Amino acid sequence: MPETTLGELAVLLDAVLENGDPKRTVSGINSLLEAGPTEVAFLANALYRPQLAATAAGAVIVHANADAGESTAALLRTDNPNFAFAKAGEFLSPPEPIPPPGIHPTAVVSPSARLGDGVSIGPWVFVGDDAVIGDRTVLFPNVHVGRASALGADCVLHPGAVVDRGVVIGDRCVLYPGAVVGADGFGYAWTGKGYYKIRHSGTVELGDEVEIGCNACVHRGRFGVTRIGRGTKIDALVIVAHNVKMGENCVIAGQAGIAGSAEIGDDVKMGGQTGVGGHLRVGSNLAFGGQTGVTKSIPDGEAGAGEYDRLWIGYPAMPYREQVRRIRDVKTIGVLRKRLRDLEERLKRLEERGGDGG
Question: Could you tell me which of 23, 39, 174, 254 has the fewest CB atoms within 10 Å of its CB?
Fold first, then answer.
């Protein structure tokens, strides 16, 4: 297990050490409540601020302007605690080592496939005819790379990932276990007697540094291309349908679904179970809360707008503040109904008395 001093860690994270001995040694990461004296924790969400006073962590990464209250813990102050904690984790809890270059004896690699330098191909991997595997790319056990697909350099395909025929994947992409890129889309024509399978002859293109989560699926185009832009991260159990165009640096959380031919701009964030209807356009610089249903096209969010000014929620999707007003109005319906009944009863009594109010 790697270890370092708080002084060295502060330099690594471009952080300012406060209330701590720069020579103190730490060797791991953990949560605020579970961290011990040799571990580093972090505070990025105000909900966990009460735990700061009780932590036994060797140091806590906090925002540069965070109020530490009565805490006596050593603090590492930085402008981005979440990012700094990720860097600390990479150093103090490194991932499993990458397998060495080479082809396992049980792998099936077509003679016409082209392999770059330093490629690692694990047990029971299949690489089809005319496929291209970029330099230093790693294919873990049971990966399938179809005919004429092309993978860039430094990609990692975890066990059971599938890249179907003709798919193009950029550099430094990651496919997690069970991810499928390039399967046929969900398309059938009604014949009057049953459904006729529509063949999907298009492909998929992933930009550099795209990640596809466990058991997520990106369908090939019915014709043309399904495209995922550079730096986009897709969580587990997400479905991206045929001919979707998604921009750069999007983040799509688990169980979201994007229907066929939808267009998603750059820097779009979607919470879990968000749904986007087919053929719609979702602009750039937007965010969607969990279980939001997008039923109409949405223009770009305003550049530099605050978090809640670019957030849409609910079904059908509405801007956050508008949806909150509607929810608040719904809650008042019961009160208004009671007032109406009271007024009707009062009016009835007045009419029975001849309207004199006496």
Answer: 23
Question: How far is CA 13 from each of CA 24, 41, 297, rounded to the nearest angstrom?
Answer: 16, 13, 41
- Cβ distance 157 to 195 under 8 Å? no
pTM over 0.85: yes
How many Å separate Cα 311 from the centre of its chain? 16
**Contact between 22 and 16 (Cβ < 8 Å):** no
Residue 195 C-beta-side C-alpha neighbours within 13 Å: 6
Residue 72 amino acid letter: T
Catalytic residues: 242
Cβ contacts of 88 within 8 Å, gap of 6 or more: 9, 12, 13, 29, 40, 42, 61
Burial 14-43 (b: 16+ CB within 10 A, else e): ebebeebeeebebebbbebeebeebbbbbb
pLDDT tens profile 119-174: 999 999 999 999 999 999 999 999 999 999 999 999 999 999 999 999 999 999 99
* Coil/strand/helix, residue 148: coil
pLDDT in tens, 242-295: 999 999 999 999 999 999 999 999 999 999 999 999 999 999 999 999 999 999
In the numeric block, the tokens 């009057």 are attached to 192
**Token digits of residue 169:** 């994947």
Is residue 16 within 8 A of residue 90, CB to CB? The reply is no
